[in-house]
Amino acid sequence: MSDALLPGNGLDTYEEQDKVLVGMSGGVDSSVTVRILQQQGFAVTGAVIRFSPAHAEAVESARRTAKQLGIECLVLDAQDLFEQEVIRPFCDAYCAGRTPHPCVLCNPAVKFNALVTAADRLGIRYIATGHYARVEVDEDGASRIHQPACLARDQSYMLSRLPQSVLSRLILPLGEFEKEDVREMARDFGLECADAPDSMEICFIPEGDYAGYIESRGMTGKAGHFLAPDGRDLGPHKGVLHYTVGQRKGLGIALGEPVFIKTILESGDIQLARSGEEFARTVTVAEISTADGAPLPAGEYLIKVRSAAQPAPADFDGQKTLTFRDPVRAPAPGQTAAFYRGDTLLGGGFITGSLG
User: Fold this and answer.
1) Cα–Cα distance for residue pair 67/64, rounded to 1 Å
2) Is residue 256 part of a domain?
3) Do 108 and 50 share a structural domain?
4) pLDDT tens digits for 224-258?
């Protein structure tokens, strides 16, 4: 077996590594993950997680793909836990004017928790997913996430809160491949999902209307007013759950110049700013989680302030403050600041605020 596909490099015998539980969605990435591991000699069992009623199609798709791949596919029900750990915090955060990333919340508390629990019940040592990232054992003996070969698809950010108990068991085969290579493999394998489009929306809100979804649950965001860059009151807005920091479109504001949302204030008012003023040099973070559980020391790190952002150099004070060498665009409270050294992910904390 190729060491590149294993969670570390200390495995000596085939018997120690012959079973793996793969989290499936029916999409191309998890399906190719199964096929790669089969080719590597693993006995693969599939598992698809029912997170919410919106996942019924994904469950059926995973079952069909598993049948095509010749493996069993377990259906793990995590709807109650997903409601508690992801949907409610997501809705509460938007109603308070924050912008959470649901995958960052889900992965440690729900998705990987469900996979590890099922693997333990089945006596399976390893778990695998179709994330674009890599797992390596570093010199200190800790398993850590690294960025993938395909940086355009880098999903390491979403895994920034996974604990060592998960990372030491995790295999991420797609970390070595470009996305188009994965699709080409799917075609070569004859998989029905080879050309299926990538999912881009929040998984439990497939229509993409997160404000409508939150309101359908009987929740409302804080009321308040738009404030012009010069402080003038521009009248009431629709409620903070309809807006995010950095947003430019859909504001319904005509000031004769482009403006964007700079800050959603605790009061519910929304401070607007002129184009070019959306950058911040200082960002504060809280609830920092690390791969090995140790606090991050003060020093310079590369920081991603959103999943698609480029890592940017910043000095960390060892407590809660990041000072960027060059200002970063629109860091939004509720999002994650992911800490890297080189291509190694060390952990992540939730953004609480920023200063220009």
Assistant:
1) 5
2) yes
3) yes
4) 999 999 999 999 999 999 999 999 998 988 888 99
Domain identity same for 243 and 305: no
**pLDDT tens across 112-149, in order?**
999 999 999 999 999 999 999 999 998 888 899 999 99
β-strands 279-290, 299-304 pairing: unpaired
- How many domains is the chain built from? 3
Nearest to 309 by CA among 267, 269, 280: 280
Residue 350 lies in a domain: yes
Structure-token pair, residue 131 = 């994330």
Nearest to 331 by CA among 284, 275, 265, 272: 284
How would you classify the pairing of strands 344-355 and 279-290? antiparallel
The model's pTM: 0.91
Same domain, 259 and 156: no
Alpha-carbon 302 to chain mean position: 17
137 and 269 fall within a common domain? no
What's the angle, vertex CA 354, arms to CA 333 and CA 238, rounded to 5?
A: 50
| Partners of 348 in beta bridges | 289, 338
**Integer distance in angstroms from the first to the last C-alpha of the chain?**
50
Residue 207 lies in a domain: no
Residue 241 domain flag: yes
State which residues form the domain around 16.
Answer: 3-188
Helices (H), the chain: 28-39, 56-69, 79-82, 88-95, 102-106, 112-122, 164-167, 179-188, 210-216
The overall average pLDDT reported for the chain is 92
148 and 270 co-located in one domain = no
Positions marked active-site: 106, 203
